[in-house]
Amino acid sequence: MRTHRRPRKYMKALLRTTLLLCVMSALLFSPAAFAQDSGASSPNAEAAPADTRGIDIDVTLGVKRKLIPMAIPKALEPGGDTGKIAQTVHDTLARDMKLAGFFKVLDEGNFFFDTSQEGMGASAIGFSNWFNVGAQGLIKSSVRTNGDQVVLDLRLYLVEEGKPARLDWKGGSFSKDEYIKQVHAFANEVLKYYTGKPGIFGSRIAYVRQQKRNKQIYAMRLGEEGVAKITNNNSINMLPSFGPGGAIYYTSYQAGNPDLWVYEGGKSRKLSSVRGQNTGADYCNGKLALTLSKDGSNSDIYLIDPSSGKIAQRLTDHWAIDTSPSWSPDCSKIAFTSGRSGGPQIYVMNADGSNQRRLTYQGSYNTQPSWSPSGNLIAFSARDERGAFDIFTVNLEGSIERLTQDQGNNSDPAFSPDGRYLVFISDRGGKGKRVWMMTADGEVQNAITEGSGYQSPAWE
């Protein structure tokens, strides 16, 4: 059911000095430290308590969708014990289906029959049993090893019809480094069968993780356990984003100044090192937008050459701070955060800096825009009337929808490549800041990392 909030009277705008400090902190740190006074000049400073001032935001909440019941029994092992491989295949399938947000993975404890006695073919499956446990879909898997190869057979069955679904995926023999990618490929095809669009399992997500007084950049593949460490220095690294060919842009203090670096081909190199901020880079079709505060001036948005780092164009020139550029999918427009209205709000401009207009008018503190690949929505983080940060979306007409509520602080939204999901940071449940994933309507939300200390996720 949709809920609707009535706006209260707006609070007075923050003083200019306070605005500069707040937005600077918003750029460099998590929302919990938005009111921090030290900002870019002191990256190791302890975070101050969040400013609890705010107002009601007039939004709507999403509508519940019905999930498709999916049964995923243990993998068959026709060639004998495969060690952990069969269990890994099963767990990967179950995890992918859960994260997809369209399926309810049924509890195996409710399977009242011996699933290991079934085969892979339709004639060897007791569909009436699966119907009685409530399954609409059934994923069967068979795993055996042949030397250093994994022989994999995966099938989706339609329980009520008692027949297999036709998917654009073929089983076969794969290396031990490749077979998990094939499991993700199958899961993507299952999602395509039910929704018309393939999934994004196996895609890369970069993020920041706190390590004592350092912050390092990591990258992971959705649905997999392993991570790759992108930076390994005794410094603060932050705000990763992806570029062409798997490149990762990020800001690092390793040389003392918040410089922009790029990681590609297994190596990092400094790309932009003007004095002051070089932060929040976002790439689109040969153009790299970022925030610079040259020679101690206010933060503004520029375009630089993605190869040389040379400044190509200044897009904003305002007394207020302009930060966090996010390209539209066709590279014709840029969303950004600006304090020119008295408090940080989401703005949109053309790619050449013209036609700068305010997009959000509800709420006094709106930051961190992320433009959807579909082009019609911009996700952002806002401080609500309780002083908590939550995730919202706004369309190009300014209509706002709320995606998170009453679950701690939620910030740093970033869209998936297909626009159907968002990753974000949440401290809900008292488990610290973790990376979470949700459907773009906010209906299904799951943690995708363990531990705490995460910031600034970005999706390739």
From TrEMBL:
Any one Gene Ontology cellular component term annotated for this protein: periplasmic space
Entry keyword annotation includes Metal-binding: no
A UniProt-annotated Pfam family: PD40
Keywords: Signal
InterPro entries: 6-blade_b-propeller_TolB-like, TolB_N, WD40
Family affiliation: Belongs to the TolB family.
The protein's name in its UniProt record: Translocation protein TolB
Organism of origin: Bradymonas sediminis
